[in-house]
Amino acid sequence: MLGIAIVAGIARLGIRSIAIYFVIGCGIWLALDASGIHAALTGVILGLMTPARSWVSDNRLHAILNRVVAYPPGEHWSGDTAGRRDLRRASVATREALSPIERLEIALHPWVAFAIMPIFALANAGVPIVPGAFDAVLASAIFVGFVVGKPIGVVVFSSLAVKLRFAARPDELRWGMLAAGSALTGIGFAMALFIADLAFGSDLLNSVKLGILAASIVSAAGGLFALVWLTT
């Protein structure tokens, strides 16, 4: 709780250094792990608490960059000159035009997409095929929830958000395209397997994994086919 309170405090103070959040996050992770609570909750907590707003608006960023671009060619960037100060200001502005959580996401994406996620999925997706060892009802429920339930939820709540003016649908995004894209949300792999491992006992885990893997294959194929059909 102390670590979480510290994160909340420094976020309110406007501290935006990713390194500071990383160090405190490691401390929270170790504390949760030692307490017996699943340490992965650290990522959920810090993800919700990390500042998600930029400090520099688009208009302000453009004004700063235009000021730098307006300098004619010459030695403006050496010494303690106004040009160099404007250049440093532009450097800070381009960084702070993105929120800390966006910068962290961009930095971690290659590692997560090409290393962490594949390793996690391969380590947790194995399903031994043993006759009579599967719960067909549970596997079917998982399958329907991913393939049917998630796309319906995306389309229905997107429609409600647009009608209630909580969101705006771009003119170029047709409802058919949105529905086709929503089919891809049925692809549940690493996070779904992680939650399944926490929620189900060993006697039911293989049935859940089978439902997840089957739903992922069908959702990927169906969503891809629908998108290709609508865009050709």
How many β-strands, per DSSP?
A: 0
- Summed up, the domain count is 3
Strand content: under 5%
Helix content: over 70%
Largest sheet: none
Structural class: mainly alpha
In terms of per-residue confidence, which ranges show pLDDT below 50 for 5 or more consecutive residues?
Answer: none
Description:
- The protein is mainly alpha-helical and 232 residues long.
- The chain folds into three domains: 2-53 and 99-114, no CATH class; 58-96, no CATH class; 133-231, no CATH class.
- 72% of the residues lie in helices and 0% in strands.
- It contains ten helices and no strands.
- It has helices at residues 2-12, 18-35, 41-49, 58-69, 82-96, 100-124, 136-163, 175-182, 190-199, 202-231.
- Helix 4 (58-69) packs antiparallel against helix 5.
- The radius of gyration is 24 Å and the shape is extended.
- The N and C termini lie far apart (53 Å).
- The mean pLDDT is 80.
Short description:
This protein is an all-alpha fold. The chain has 10 helices and no strands.
Secondary structure topology:
Blueprint: H1 2-12, H2 18-35, H3 41-49, H4 58-69, H5 82-96, H6 100-124, H7 136-163, H8 175-182, H9 190-199, H10 202-231
Helix pairs in contact: 1-2, 2-3, 4-5, 7-8, 7-10, 8-10, 9-10
Keywords:
232 residues; mainly alpha; 3 domains; 10 helices; 72% helix; extended
